[in-house]
Design a protein that fits this description.
Strands 2, 4, 5, 6, 9, 10 and 11 form a 7-stranded mixed β-sheet that branches. A 4-stranded antiparallel β-sheet has the order 1-3-8-7, with no helix packed on it. It starts with a strand and ends with a strand. 34% of the residues are buried. It has no helices and 11 strands. By secondary structure, the chain is mainly β.
């Protein structure tokens, strides 16, 4: 089992930036990929970005491509989501997720991920 703890959310103005962190603990040697999802009020949880722990390949949702960057620090077992040029529609609870079994690349469905963090709120003011 892998435990995930997110941090870094907050309130920011349109056009601003935030960096989210996700610290992993437990059976981190078994990780295949890490991902970020988000859920806005009244909406389904949606895929944001994913990163292969081994190859460092990345994949992004079209809505964030060019604005968000997912990265990792294997020594710290931490994954980051750098968010730039934020828009009000980026407002959501952001969840970190971990996949421990090899999946078809890129893993972007909720069912592809085994462990989830508690979420961190990101609010972008108009």
């Amino acid at each position: 089992q892998v435990q995930l703890v997110e941090s870094g959310g907050g309130l920011v103005q349109t056009g601003g930036s935030l960096r989210l962190s996700c610290a992993a603990s437990g059976r981190t040697f078994s990780l295949y990929a890490m991902g970020w999802f988000r859920q806005a009020p009244g909406r389904e949880r949606e895929f944001v970005a994913t990163l292969s722990r081994i190859s460092a390949n990345t994949y992004y949702a079209d809505s964030v491509k060019g604005r968000f960057t997912i990265s990792k620090d294997n020594v710290k077992n931490t994954v980051y989501l750098e968010m730039n040029s934020l828009k009000p529609e980026d407002t959501a609870v952001y969840y970190c997720a971990a996949a421990t079994a090899p999946k078809a690349w890129p893993p972007r469905e909720r069912a592809s991920f085994d462990s989830w963090g508690q979420g961190t709120q990101v609010t972008v003011a108009p």
